[in-house]
Amino acid sequence: MVTLLQRVSQSIVEGEDEESRVDRELSELSEQRLYFLRADALRDKQNATKDKVSLQEAVQRQAQVENSSNSDDSDFEEFLDWRAKKVS
Q1: What is 11-59 written as a DSSP string?
Q2: How is residue 83 annotated by DSSP?
Q3: Per-residue model confidence (pLDDT) at position 84
Q4: Could you tell me the pLDDT band of residue 64, with boundaries at 50, 70 and 90?
Q5: CA-CA-CA-CA torsion for 52, 57, 63, 69, nearest 10 degrees?
């Protein structure tokens, strides 16, 4: 009879151990899911920042091109204005 009680006790302990192991694994999976979601959010933020920086660089390059073409035009305008008298 003692062995029967020991077996029942051992099976109860094993069941509780199994239940706590499953709970721990579920908790770890939930934590991993949160980390993956956070990593995805950070990756999206990084991509948005890269896109924003690329757009700003493109705008700056375009502005530089426009400025250089405007300054080139103004350099030649003085030679094209035949009415302008240059006194040295």
Answers
A1: HHHHHHHHHHHHHHHHHHHHHHHHHHHHHHHHHHHHHHHHHHHHHHHHH
A2: T
A3: 61
A4: confident
A5: -150
